[in-house]
Amino acid sequence: TTTTTTTTSEVSSSSMISSTSSSTTMLPLINATLEDPYCLSGSNSFLRFQLEKGVSNSFVQAVFRTEGDGLLMYAGPETTVSDFLALYIFNGVVTFAFDTGDGVVSLSSDLNTYNDNEWHVVQASRTLIAGTVVLVDLYVDDEQLSTTSPIGASNGVLQVSELLYVGGSDNEDLPAALAALLPDPNFSGCLDQIQFDFVELSLTSNLLIRASGVDACTLTGFVYEASYVKYSNSVSRSTDESAVSFSFKTIDPDGSLIYIASNESYTDYLCVALVNGQLAVEINLGAGTILVQTMEATSFADGVWHKVNIAHAGQAAFALVDSIQLDPIFSADSILNTNGDVFVGAVPAYAQGQGFSGLHRRGVVGCIQDVVVEGNILQPTSTAATLTLGVEVCRSTCMM
Fold first, then answer.
1. Which among 105, 109, 112, 136 is positioned nearest to 122, based on CA atoms?
2. What average pLDDT does this structure show over 120-140?
3. CA gyration radius, the chain
């Protein structure tokens, strides 16, 4: 294994729909305003929350992305009744269904394309009207559907248990009426902005009792060579020690992966990129730009995940990709001066430091995840991500 060293002196589709039910709600902008997305593996994956028994009115919301079927949300019956409430997707159709003991009421989307691995937003509600009928509303992206149903002997009250499931269930005995509608309740895909009766339900919610087969999503797809995410105030402005780590997957042989920008008064910067399929690290601590890169027989643009670790300590910097150590970097200076910004993906012209070689201005087309800079986890859904261009978050399959 050898390395070489040289020395020189916003993206999202959106759906804005006003509900005509008892509460008017604007559907959230998809992708640009994802908050804390998480992914479920399908088999035996679910989140279980605590809720109140006996529900008259119900409002549910989910932002989802999947290529399959399964429960988005489910509240099951108590032991002596058959009541349930469910929001699910089957064969690309989104359905809101419930049973208060008077028979199943369901409302489904007209479109059957919601299993296209793109982000979609759904809201559904059931509202008692004058104590005689239940108004049922379903909104999926731009679709708006409504129906009514008589309340029957139940007076419209749902006798469900105190447990609310998201993304599946650990109870194999779903009500027979629901099992007939949805053969496989296990959801495989990503979810965000789950609400039940306007209460936010997430991995950090104090209502969460158990999570199985669920992981926070850190995968970001960079769709174009100009795609990037800018993280503001995410790195020290003057430091003699820093650490960067991330994973990438691509078949694009050239482009920037991560760039730490310089303060306008300095020439300093750090850039990690692919050049002809080889990993390159370019750093300037003020005494001139130093570039090191791997010289492997095989390319890192091979469609396989690779792990990168960079450590800067004083006048030295070290880089590792998978188990391959690049040549150490030694500089006459020891301080990395920055403006606090980190760019993942392309390097826009306004952010390029003095002496930046320009070899890596375009970004890699592919996927980057698990970005950590100085111990800070950087995700495009965090508040530090002040600008995102041409990126897609949490694809169940990585685009390359």
1. 109
2. 90
3. 25
Q: Partners of 363 in the beta sheet? A: 256
Tell me phi and psi for residue 193, to 5 degrees: 50, 50
Q: How far apart are CA 309 and CA 324, in angstroms?
A: 10
Per-residue pLDDT reduced to its tens digit, 227-244: 899 999 888 888 888 899
**Residue among 93, 242, 74 nearest 168 (CA):** 74
140, 144, 150, 152: CA torsion to nearest 10: 10
Region of poorest pLDDT, from 57-66, 193-202, 349-358: 349-358
Contact present, 156 and 136 (Cβ < 8 Å): no
Do residues 34 and 192 lie in contact, with contact meaning Cβ atoms separated by under 8 Å?
A: yes
Q: What percent of the chain has pLDDT over 90?
A: 36
- As a whole number of angstroms, the distance between CA 111 and CA 273 comes to 42
Can you say whether the dihedral through the CA atoms of 89, 90, 92, 98 is positive or negative? negative
For residue 138, give Cα distances in angstroms to 83, 106, 190, 259: 20, 10, 20, 44
pTM: 0.65
**Cα distances (angstroms) measured from residue 395 to each of 153, 186, 205:** 45, 18, 24
Q: Which of 106, 121, 148 is nearest to 20 (CA)?
A: 148
User: 106: which strand partners?
Assistant: 97
Contact residues for 58 (Cβ-Cβ < 8 A; gap 6+): 85, 98, 125, 126, 158, 196, 197
How many Cβ atoms from other residues are within 10 Å of residue 168's Cβ?
Answer: 27
Query: How far apart, in Å, are the Cα atoms of 315 and each of 159, 208, 284, 372?
Result: 67, 47, 11, 22
Tell me the two tokens of residue 297.
């027989």
Spatial separation of the C-alpha atoms in residues 250 and 286, rounded to whole Å: 32
Q: Where are the alpha helices (DSSP H) in the chain?
A: 176-181
Closest CA to 388 of 184, 232, 203, 164: 232
Residues 6+ apart with CB under 8 A from 350: none
Triad 145, 42, 170: Cα angle to 5°? 90
The DSSP output letter for 363 is B
* Mean predicted lDDT score pLDDT of the chain: 82
